[in-house]
Description:
This protein is mostly beta strands. 0% of the residues lie in helices and 37% in strands. Strands 1-4-7 form a three-stranded parallel β-sheet, with no helix packed on it. Strands 2-5-8 form a three-stranded parallel β-sheet, with no helix packed on it. It starts with a strand and ends in a 34-residue tail after the last strand.
Amino acid sequence: MTFAVWFEQTYASWVKNVTVGHSSNYNVFFNDSLNCELRHSRLDELNHAGSNGAGLLMNTVSGCLIEDNIIRERVFVPTDKQQNLELHPKTLPGAPGVGNGPVNG
Protein backbone atom coordinates (compact mmCIF):
# COMPACT_ATOMS: atom_id res chain seq x y z
CA MET A 1 0.00 0.00 0.00
CA THR A 2 1.31 3.43 -0.89
CA PHE A 3 -0.23 5.32 2.06
CA ALA A 4 -1.44 3.57 5.19
CA VAL A 5 -3.65 6.55 6.16
CA TRP A 6 -4.79 8.90 3.39
CA PHE A 7 -6.99 11.96 3.82
CA GLU A 8 -7.95 13.89 0.69
CA GLN A 9 -10.21 16.94 0.48
CA THR A 10 -11.21 16.70 4.13
CA TYR A 11 -12.25 19.24 6.75
CA ALA A 12 -11.60 18.82 10.50
CA SER A 13 -10.29 15.27 10.10
CA TRP A 14 -7.94 13.69 12.60
CA VAL A 15 -5.63 10.79 13.39
CA LYS A 16 -5.16 10.12 17.11
CA ASN A 17 -3.57 7.28 19.11
CA VAL A 18 -2.69 5.29 15.98
CA THR A 19 0.41 3.22 15.23
CA VAL A 20 1.25 2.92 11.55
CA GLY A 21 4.13 1.03 9.95
CA HIS A 22 5.40 -1.00 7.02
CA SER A 23 3.94 1.28 4.35
CA SER A 24 5.56 1.23 0.95
CA ASN A 25 5.72 5.01 0.60
CA TYR A 26 4.33 7.27 3.38
CA ASN A 27 2.59 6.28 6.60
CA VAL A 28 0.19 9.27 6.72
CA PHE A 29 -0.77 11.58 3.86
CA PHE A 30 -2.90 14.72 4.19
CA ASN A 31 -3.81 16.19 0.79
CA ASP A 32 -6.02 19.23 0.03
CA SER A 33 -7.25 19.32 3.63
CA LEU A 34 -8.23 22.02 6.11
CA ASN A 35 -7.94 21.91 9.93
CA CYS A 36 -6.54 18.37 10.11
CA GLU A 37 -4.82 16.93 13.19
CA LEU A 38 -2.23 14.24 13.87
CA ARG A 39 -1.82 13.63 17.61
CA HIS A 40 -0.41 11.07 20.01
CA SER A 41 0.50 8.65 17.21
CA ARG A 42 3.50 6.60 16.18
CA LEU A 43 4.59 6.56 12.56
CA ASP A 44 6.98 3.64 12.46
CA GLU A 45 9.42 2.24 9.92
CA LEU A 46 8.61 1.75 6.26
CA ASN A 47 8.76 -1.62 4.54
CA HIS A 48 11.92 -0.67 2.62
CA ALA A 49 15.18 1.21 2.95
CA GLY A 50 16.23 4.09 0.74
CA SER A 51 14.45 7.14 -0.56
CA ASN A 52 10.85 7.76 -1.65
CA GLY A 53 9.08 7.53 1.65
CA ALA A 54 8.70 9.10 5.06
CA GLY A 55 6.42 8.99 8.07
CA LEU A 56 4.32 11.99 7.07
CA LEU A 57 3.50 13.77 3.81
CA MET A 58 1.38 16.93 3.64
CA ASN A 59 0.33 18.62 0.40
CA THR A 60 -1.85 21.71 0.04
CA VAL A 61 -3.08 21.81 3.64
CA SER A 62 -3.96 24.70 5.93
CA GLY A 63 -4.64 25.14 9.63
CA CYS A 64 -3.32 21.70 10.57
CA LEU A 65 -1.94 20.66 13.94
CA ILE A 66 0.79 18.03 14.27
CA GLU A 67 1.81 17.43 17.89
CA ASP A 68 3.07 14.83 20.35
CA ASN A 69 3.94 12.11 17.81
CA ILE A 70 6.81 9.72 17.25
CA ILE A 71 7.88 9.82 13.62
CA ARG A 72 10.62 7.28 13.18
CA GLU A 73 13.68 7.12 10.93
CA ARG A 74 12.62 8.49 7.58
CA VAL A 75 13.15 12.21 7.32
CA PHE A 76 14.58 13.05 3.89
CA VAL A 77 17.35 15.62 3.69
CA PRO A 78 19.40 15.83 0.49
CA THR A 79 22.96 14.61 0.96
CA ASP A 80 24.50 17.99 0.13
CA LYS A 81 22.38 19.67 2.86
CA GLN A 82 23.09 17.16 5.67
CA GLN A 83 25.17 18.21 8.65
CA ASN A 84 26.61 16.29 11.58
CA LEU A 85 24.30 17.77 14.25
CA GLU A 86 22.96 14.76 16.17
CA LEU A 87 22.01 15.56 19.75
CA HIS A 88 23.08 12.08 20.89
CA PRO A 89 25.44 10.75 18.18
CA LYS A 90 25.30 7.06 17.28
CA THR A 91 22.10 6.35 19.24
CA LEU A 92 19.77 5.77 16.27
CA PRO A 93 19.38 2.18 15.05
CA GLY A 94 20.82 0.98 11.77
CA ALA A 95 18.85 -0.15 8.74
CA PRO A 96 16.02 -2.65 9.40
CA GLY A 97 17.41 -6.16 9.81
CA VAL A 98 21.06 -5.03 9.66
CA GLY A 99 23.35 -4.89 12.68
CA ASN A 100 21.56 -3.24 15.60
CA GLY A 101 18.66 -2.07 13.42
CA PRO A 102 15.02 -2.95 14.07
CA VAL A 103 13.82 -6.40 13.15
CA ASN A 104 10.70 -6.86 11.04
CA GLY A 105 8.29 -9.45 12.27
